[in-house]
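Table 4 source record.
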Amino acid sequence: MIASPVFVLSSALATFWAALFHLLFGKRLLDLLLYWFVGIVGFLVGQAMADIIGLHWLTLGQIHIVEATLGCWIAMLVAQCLKA
């Protein structure tokens, strides 16, 4: 499970989005850890919601790129707003 391509690519994409979000909005190194954790959770929620609803805008294998990315960014924006 942990070495599956879906898990590795999902984790890599969520990590990339969290790093980009931190570059744009982060101030401390602890913020990066927060955005990474929230980004992973948001990515997984976006992925699950796309599966449940049945959206297939842009997929790479089993990964819903657009929906999962939106979930990731929304979760990080909420975390940033609640952090302040």
